[in-house]
Amino acid sequence: MIKAILIFNNHGKPRLSKFYEHYNEDTEQQIIRETFHLVSKRDENVCNFLEGGMLIGGSDYKLIYRHYATLYFVFCVDSSESELGILDLIQVFVETLDKCFENVCELDLIFHVDKVHNILAEMVMGGMVLETNMNEIITQVDAQNKMEKSETFIFQSTRQDR
Amino acid sequence: MALKIVKGSIDRMFDKNLQDLVRGIRNHKEDEAKYISTCIDEIKQELKQDNIAVKANAVCKLTYLQMLGYDVSWAAFNIVEVMSSSKFTYKRIGYLAASQCFHESTDVIMLTTNQIRKDLSSPNQYDTGVALTGLSCFVTPDLARDLANDIMTLMSHTKPYIRKKAVLIMYKVFLKYPESLRPAFPRLKEKLEDPDPGVQSAAVNVICELARRNPKNYLSLAPLFFKLMTSSTNNWVLIKIIKLFGALTPLEPRLGKKLIEPLTNLIHSTSAMSLLYECVNTVIAVLISLSSGMPNHSASIQLCVQKLRILIEDSDQNLKYLGLLAMSKILKTHPKSVQSHKDLILQCLDDKDESIRLRALDLLYGMVSKKNLMEIVKKLMLHVDKAEGTTYRDELLTKIIDICSQSNYQYITNFEWYISILVELTRLEGTRHGHLIASQMLDVAIRVKAIRVFAVAQMATLLDNAHLLTGNVQRKGICEVLYAAAWICGEFSEHLENPMQTLEAMLRPKVATLPGHIQAVYVQNAAKLFATVLKSQEGNTEGTAAQETSQLMIDRLPLFVQSANLEVQERASCILQLVKYIQKLQQKDVEVAEEVCALFAGELNPVAPKAQKKVPVPEGLDLDAWINEPPSESESEDEQPRAIFAKEEPKHSRPRHTEVDEKELARRREARKQEQANNPFYIKASPSSQKVYQEAPGVEHIPVVQIDLSVPLKVPGLPMSDQYVKLEEERRQKERAEKKKKDKKKRKEKRSGRGKKHDSGPESEEDITPAHMVDIVTEEMPENALPSDDDEKDPNDPHKALDIDLDRPLADSEKLPVRSHRAAEALKSPAEDGEAESAAPPELKKKSSKDKREKKKDKDRDRKKSKEEKKKKKHKHEEKEEDLLGGQADEPVVQPEETSEVAALPSSTSAEVSDLDFWLSNAPVPSNTQEAATVAEAAPVPEAASCTAPDSEPDEPKDTELEETKSSKHKKKKQKKEKEEKEKKKKKKHHHHHHHSDGGAEESVQNGTVEEEEPLPPMSNYCLLAENSYIKMVNDIQGNLQDGSQVVVSVIFENKCESFLKSMEFNVLDSLNCKLQRPEGSGPHDGLTVPFQLPPGVSNEARFVFTVQSIVMPQKLKGTLTFIVKNEDSSTHEKLDFKLHFTCTSYLITTPCYSDAFAKLLESGDLKGSSVRLEGVNMPFHHLLARICFHHHFSVVERIDSCASMYSRSIQGHHVCLLVKTSDQTVSIDAKCDEPTLLGNVLDEIKQTFSQC
C-alpha cells in the first residue's frame, strides 16, 4: 500500500500532496515539512530509500523518492510494495507528466495541480497501484480531457444561443 | 432563469480561477496569509451563487488551498453539490476535493450515498471512474456497506477500465466493511483470470494485500497463483505474486519446495532487477520456512547470496541498499553463508549513505565472533563519535548493545571491557537510550559475579560525577544510567572502596532534581549503603563515626521526604524513621549494624522478564473465580484475583485500601498468603528485583534544571575501553606465544621464517579464552514454564477484522445488503411506504439481508417516470451470478464451480484443504498438472477410473478408501476447473442451479433474474430418482456447454439405514439416442462404480456423463443401482431400480441475452412460434419468472410490469425465446424457437411445473 504521495520543490513548497490515510491539515503540513527535511539533506548519489520519519510511517513504512531538477517526488509505502517497482512507478509518473504537459516543469505543476491529480488518479487509486502502462494512462487522461473540452464547448455554445 | 444563467456566466469571467489564485499567492509573498484570507472570503461568496460553474471553480481553488494547509472542511456541503453536477468537468472537481478533504467524521458524507450510487451506474465510464477514485479515498463503513453490492456488480463491468477500478476499491470496502469479504471473494478470485491484464493486476494486488495480513486464509489460492506466476509476463503482477508467496510459504513448507525451482529459473532468466530482487527475497523466505527438517538447499542459498553480493557491489546505491536488506534476512537462518561476505559489509559501514550504513549495521549483528567483537565495537565507537544526527547515533548505540549482549553475552570475553564501553556510551549527548544502557549495566552486574567489584567501582565514579550526566537538558535521557549506578552501588556495596564517599554522593541536594523513580532508587540504596557503612565503622572505631553517618542521613533525608513523588516520599520517610531509631540505639551504645544489614540480606537472582507470564496455571485453579465473595463495585479494579501473582503488594492500591475495613483486609491478606503458600509456582517476592526490570516511564516529561556545560564531558578517572582492546590483544598474543612454545617443544621444528605470519593467521574460536572466568548466571524461570509465548497481535489492527475464513460456505445472513425494490417495502410494511426514496437506503438495509434483488442500470431514465417499476438490466449474467452467490445457503461459495459436485460433504473446507494438499503433493511441474487435467477432461468419467480400486479391494480399511475417494474428487475438481476456464474463454457463463443440503430436506436457491418483491420460496431442481429403506437417490441433469452432445447427471446418494453402504454400482440400459459414458475398455452393459462409500446417515454426490444424439425429445432410461449393505456381522447385496428422466429442459443452458440481441433474434424470422396458456396460477409474477428461470434454465431479458421476455439456449445452440404475460391468474406464454419439437416439449414441461404447484 502507498500511504502518501508528495511532490515538493527544493525549498519544501508543496506542489502536490495526496494522502491515502486521513490526517488533519496541520499534520499534513508537518509531514510534508518533516519529509522535506529528511529528503533534502541527502546527497544526490545516495540511495532513494529512507527509513524513519516520525509522523508518517513507522517501522513497516519507507520513503521512496526521486529528485528531478527542482522537484522531489516522494512515495511513502509499506513493505507490500516493491522498492524498485515504486521507483519505476515514479519514473512512469514523471514521464507521463512530461507527455501530458509537453516538457513538464515545476510551473506546470504549480498552476495545474488539478491536472496532476487527475493523472495520478489513473495510476494510483486509494493507495494501490492501478495502472503502470504509460500509454494506457495517457489514453484515459486524454479521453477525459476531451470530454471536459466537449462539455465546455457545449456550455459556451448554449450561452451564445441565449 | 435564462438571464440568471447568463449573468452567472458573465460573473464567472471576472472570478479568479485556480491559475489566478496561484499567481496571486505568488505575487503576495510578504502577506500571503492575508491575501489567502481575502481569497477565501471571495470563495465563500462564489459558493453562495447558484451557478454550478462558479461553485466548481471555487471548490477547485479550495482544493489547492487545502494542500497549502488550510482547513476547508466548512465547504464540505458545497463540495457535495459540485460532486452531484451532471457535468463531468465539475463532477471531477467535486470528487477530487472530496477525496482530498473528506474523512470518516465528515458528516455530509452520508448525503453522498445516493449520488455516488448514481454515478457508479452512469452510462459514462468516466463518471463511474471518477466516483470510484473519489470513493477509494473517503469510503466510510456506512458507504462501504451501502455500496458494496453496487461495486461488486461493477467488478464484472464490460469496460476493463471500470473493472480494474472496482476490483481495486474492493480492498477498501473490505477494510471498512469486513462482512463483504466473503460474499465478494468468489468474484474477486474470478478476476484473477480476467482477460484484461490491468484487471488481473488489480485483483492480484487486492488479494496480495489481503493475504499479507491473514495469509492462512489464502493458502487455497496457491495453485491459482502458481499458475499465474508461471504464465504471467507482467512484472508488476509477478512481483506481487512472488511477494505473496513469500508470505504464504511460512505456513506451508511444501509450497516452498514447489516454488524453489520456478523461482530460481526466474532469477537466472529475468533482466528486471526489481523482479530478481523479489525472487531472491521469496527464495529466502522459502529457505527459512524449509530450514527445519529439509535437506539443505545450499545451492539455492549460494545463488541468493551470490546475486545479493552482486547487488551490494553495484554502484547503484539502491541496489546496494536492497542487497543488504535481503542479506539480513538470510542472516537469521544461514549466518554462515553471510559471514563469508564480512569484508563487503564492513566496507558498507563506511558508506556515506546513512540508509546503507544502517542496513550494514543490522548485518553486523550476525558477523561478530569472540575474536572480532572488540574490533568491530571499536569501529562502531569511532562511528558513534563521528556520527551527526541523533537517529543514526542512537541506532549505533542500540546496535552496539545488541551485538554485545546477543545470545547471553556469548561473544564477550572481557566484561571489564564491556562495562567500560557502557560507561563510555553514557557520554553520548542527547541519546534516548539511557534506560537501555542502564538495564545492560544492571544485567551484567547481577549476572556476572566476577565483574561486580569492577562494576561497582565504575558506578561509584559515575555517581560521583552525576552532575555531568544530569547537567544538560539535552542529556536527560542518559540520567537513567544513574538509576542503574545507584542500584549497583547499593546492592553490591560490600565491594565499594569508599562507601562513605558514595553515600555522600547519593545524598547530594542535586539528586532532588532527578526524575522521581531514580530518586526512589537513590533513597533505597542509600539505606543499603548506610548499612554497609555502619558495619565497617562499628567494627573499628568507638562509634562516633557511625553516629556521624546516621546524622548525615538524618540531615539529608528530609529533602526527599518533601519530594512530590509519592514513591520517594514514602521510602524516604520510612528510612528516615528507621535511621532516627538507629541513632537512638547508637546513643545508647547498642550495636545495630548487624540488624540493619539483615534488612538487606539475601542474594537477588535475575528473573527472566517473561518468567511471570510463563508460570503455568495449575490444574484446578480458576483465575477468574472469586477467592472471596465479590467486593463492592468500587474496589473491583484493584482486587482482581490475578493480584496473587504480582510480586509485591500493589502499591498503587494502597490509598484506596484505607476505605476497606481492617478486618476484611486482614482476612483477604490471610487468604492470599494461604494461596501463595500452597502454590508451588509462586515466586517468592524479593524486595527490589522486580523493579530492576521495570521500564522507567516518562523520563522525558520531567523537567530537569538546565546547566550549560561548555567544557567537554570527560569523566575523570574512567577507563578507556580502548585500553582493553590493547590489553586483550597483548593477552592473546601471550597466550598464543605460550601455545606456540608448547607446539615448538612438541614438534621441535624450525619455522623461524614463517613464525610471525603464523601469529597473525586465523585462529579458531576455541583458542580464545575469556580474560576472567565468568559465571554468567542464567535468568530464572519458573518450573514448567509454558514454552509458547506469542506476542499478542495489536488488537487495534484493522486487518484483524479481515481474518475471515473464506473457505467456509456462505451463510444466508452474510449476503451483501442490496438496495431493494420500494414495492417490497410496501408489501412488507405498508407503514414505510410513504417514505421518500432518498431516505430509504438506511431503512432498507435492515431488510436487505432477505432481499436478493438489486436494481440495475436505469437505461431509459429520461423517458420513464416511475423508476421503480421500469428498471432494466444490462448485465443479466452478472446479476445471476451474484444471486447465486447471494442466495446460496449451503454451498461453498469460494469455489462456485464445484457446487454441483461436492454434495453434502461433511465439510467443504476439508475438501478445499485436501485439494490444496493434492496440488502440493502431486504434479510438481505445472504443465503436467494441466495436461493431467486436460486428459481428465477429454475422458470425463473420472469416477470410473478411480473407482476400480474400492471395487477390487472391498475390505480395505476405511482410511485408505477415504483417501481414494478424495483423490478422485481432486480429479473431478481439476476437470471442473478446466471446464470453468474454457467457459470463460468463450465468455459464456454457465451456472448450475441446483442446490442441496444434508439430506436434501431444505433446499433453498433463488435464481434472481427477476426483480423480486418478496422472498421466493425455496426451490430445488433435484428430484427424487428412487428410494428404498437403505438408500435415497435424488438427481439433477445439466447440459454441458462445451460439448453439444453431453449432459451431466448429478446424483446424490443418501444412506438412510444404520449400516455401511459400499461397492455401489450405477448402471443404465443405454438407448440408441442416449448412452452412459463408460471408461475405455469396459463393455456397453457394465456398470459404473460409485467412487465413494456411505457411512450411516451420510450423503454424497456422484456425477455421470451421458452422450445424447438428439435433444428435441425427452426420454427415459431404466437403470439399476446395486450395492452392498454391510453390518457388523453380515453383508447383503441389495439393488434399487430407477428411471432416469431426461427432460428437454435439461438440455437448456441458462444463457444471458441482451435486449437488443433478443430483438434481433425475434426479427430474424428464423424462429417458429408456439404458445401456451396457464390457468389458475396463483403466485406473484416475479415468483413465476423465478421458477421458469430456475427450473427451466431461462434468463430474463427484460421485464416491464406484468410482462417479461426470457431467453435460453440448448446445448446444441437452439435459441428459445419466451414472452410471458400475466393477468388475473392467467399466464400466457408465447414462445419462439428454431426447433418446434423442442419448443413444444419445453412448453409442456413448463406447464407441468406450474400444474404441480
TrEMBL record, chain A:
UniProt GO BP: Golgi to vacuole transport; intracellular protein transport
Keyword Transport attached: yes
Cell compartment(s), UniProt: Cytoplasmic vesicle membrane; Golgi apparatus
Alphabetical list of Gene3D superfamilies matching this protein: 3.30.450.60
AP complex mu/sigma subunit domain segment(s): 1-147
Domain of life according to the entry: Eukaryota
Membrane topology: Peripheral membrane protein
Keyword Transport: yes
Keywords from the named record: Cytoplasmic vesicle, Golgi apparatus, Membrane, Protein transport, Transport
Any GO CC annotation of this UniProt entry: AP-3 adaptor complex
Stored InterPro entries: AP_complex_ssu, AP_mu_sigma_su, APS3, Clathrin_sm-chain_CS, Longin-like_dom_sf
A Pfam short name: Clat_adaptor_s
Chain segments annotated as coiled-coil in the UniProt record: none
Role played: Part of the AP-3 complex, an adaptor-related complex which is not clathrin-associated. The complex is associated with the Golgi region as well as more peripheral structures. It facilitates the budding of vesicles from the Golgi membrane and may be directly involved in trafficking to lysosomes. In concert with the BLOC-1 complex, AP-3 is required to target cargos into vesicles assembled at cell bodies for delivery into neurites and nerve terminals.
Record-stated family: Belongs to the adaptor complexes small subunit family.
Protein name: AP complex subunit sigma
Source species: Pundamilia nyererei
Underlying gene: AP3S1
UniProtKB/TrEMBL annotation, chain B:
Comp. bias regions, Low complexity: 931-945
Membrane protein topology class: Peripheral membrane protein
Bias type Basic residues, positions: 741-757, 847-856, 984-996
Composition bias, Acidic residues: 777-794
Broad class of where this protein is predominantly found: cytoplasm
Region annotation Disordered: where it falls in the sequence: 646-686, 714-1016
Similarity comment text for this entry: Belongs to the adaptor complexes large subunit family.
Protein name: AP-3 complex subunit delta-1
UniProt organism field: Labrus bergylta (ballan wrasse)
Classification lineage: Eukaryota, Metazoa, Chordata, Craniata, Vertebrata
